[in-house]
Design brief:
Length: 442
């Protein structure tokens, strides 16, 4: 029996969904953060439950050849990255194993041997968006931070290695401007949310009071970054509730641009501070090309279509596309995008997917391609029921959570859908997160 504060020697046999090493001691599962497959390690047990224990590395007795020195000085303190202690190829193998394990153990797909994983062109500095919590330090200065893993305790940072270098520069300049010109009100600043694409930047300050003298802040940012009013936007989001939702209220334009205008795969789009948009442009486009390839000359129903980028891209190769989205503002954005890009074979429908899907499938026919790109929680049970009712024969599912993906695939497998293809994508290098594309047929 393993007890808290025991020190034991284990060998790492695999990885859990958080990228932690999995070991076994007397048949009991032990999770070991920052370990690498195959390593023999002495660990100090810091937590014990009925089903597993967690150990902290005391000594690496037999290190893996894949182990490297993490380049980030905040690694293991900040909760943003989990895999910087291994080389990039090893991180890809770990993520492929995470996807495979979920499909086998949760989904019941016992015959999966290996999962292909597509690497990211950028291993660092790839994120086009960052949300930095803001804190006042012991000296009364505002500091840009990240959270320690599984806490809301700050880690003050100067540079995040997985975040776009322009965003890192914004964080430094903002901190200087806030400390210089906002000595009385900077304590009200809660988060700094920055999005940067093609050299243009949206800066949103989340505060519990209205930001006064916004022109002072805008000019400070503009001069410090070397940008003009056509490449920089300053916005505010007044936070009312004390919760974990960062941009929960209305976002108000203060100075400069309101949107980032850019072109993605020949589609002109507008990205706002609150728009959902993938953080890794390289991998996003690789996934979209995969989905598009499966939609050539077909009728397509794009569930969870959001602001409509996927639907617009699908419309370039499909016969006809129907985008289903419950958020009214997102549907309006999708319609505007379609109009601005002269897309005529796309119909965006503001609706509850669970209620509308059977009707749309009955209209287009069961031979249509259904595209699912849900949030991390996966597909709602009502939508699964709607899929079963519709009897659609072909599904392309894009997921950012292997566990909920596997859960949903099991439900579909049990009613006759067969898994035809699985490809993982490294959307989030250096972290434990992974994006997955699967193809199902009935």
């Amino acid at each position: 029996m393993i007890n808290k504060n025991d020190e034991i020697i284990v060998t790492i046999e695999g990885y859990n969904s958080e990228g932690q090493g999995i070991a076994r001691a007397d048949g009991f599962v032990v999770f070991v953060p920052f370990s690498v497959l195959g390593e023999k390690i002495k660990v100090h047990i810091i937590k014990v439950t009925k089903s597993y224990a967690v150990g902290k590395i005391v000594q690496i007795l037999e290190p893996s050849k894949e182990r490297v020195n993490p380049p980030c000085p905040y690694f293991s303190k900040c909760g943003g990255c989990a895999l910087q202690h291994m080389n990039y190829q090893a991180t890809l193998q770990a993520k492929a194993e995470i996807v495979k394990s979920a499909l086998v153990k949760i989904g019941g797909f016992r015959d999966i041997q290996n999962v292909e994983i597509v690497p990211s062109n950028k291993k660092y500095f790839y994120r086009n968006k960052a949300s930095f919590p803001l804190f006042i330090d012991d000296n009364g200065n505002l500091q840009v931070a990240m959270f320690k893993g599984l806490t809301h305790d700050p880690v003050f940072i100067e540079n995040c290695l997985i975040t776009d270098e322009l965003i890192n520069k914004v964080a430094v300049v903002f901190k200087d401007v806030a400390n210089k010109f906002y000595s009385d009100s900077k304590k009200h600043f809660k988060y700094l949310v920055v999005r940067a694409i093609d050299g243009k930047v949206l800066v949103t300050v989340v505060s519990d009071v209205h930001i006064k003298n916004a022109k002072v802040m805008f000019d400070g940012l503009k001069n410090g970054l070397g940008l003009d009013e056509n490449s920089l936007g300053l916005l505010e989001c007044k936070k009312i509730s004390d919760n974990n939702v960062i941009l929960e209220g209305d976002v108000t334009q203060l100075c400069g641009i309101k949107y980032l205008n850019c072109k993605i795969m020949d589609i002109n789009i507008q990205i706002s501070a609150k728009s959902f948009f993938q953080v890794n442009l390289d991998i996003m486009q690789k996934i979209y090309k995969k989905v598009i390839k499966n939609a050539e000359n077909k009728l397509v129903v794009d569930a969870y279509s959001g602001a409509g980028l996927m639907s617009a891209l699908l419309a370039k190769s499909a016969k006809q596309v129907y985008g289903l989205e419950i958020v009214k503002e997102a549907t309006e954005d999708a319609n505007r995008m379609a109009k601005e890009n002269n897309i005529t074979n796309l119909v965006n429908i503001n609706c509850d997917v669970a209620e509308k899907l059977p009707e749309v499938i009955s209209m287009v026919g069961e031979n249509a391609l259904l595209v699912l790109d849900p949030p991390r929680k996966g597909v709602d049970q009502k939508v699964i029921d709607a899929i079963l009712q519709s009897q659609v024969k072909e599904i392309a599912y894009v997921s950012c959570n292997p566990a909920t993906l596997a859960r949903d695939l099991k439900l579909l497998k049990d009613v006759g859908y067969q898994l035809k293809e699985v490809v993982a994508y490294d959307m989030f290098p250096q972290t434990q997160h992974v994006e997955t594309f699967v193809k199902l047929e009935k």
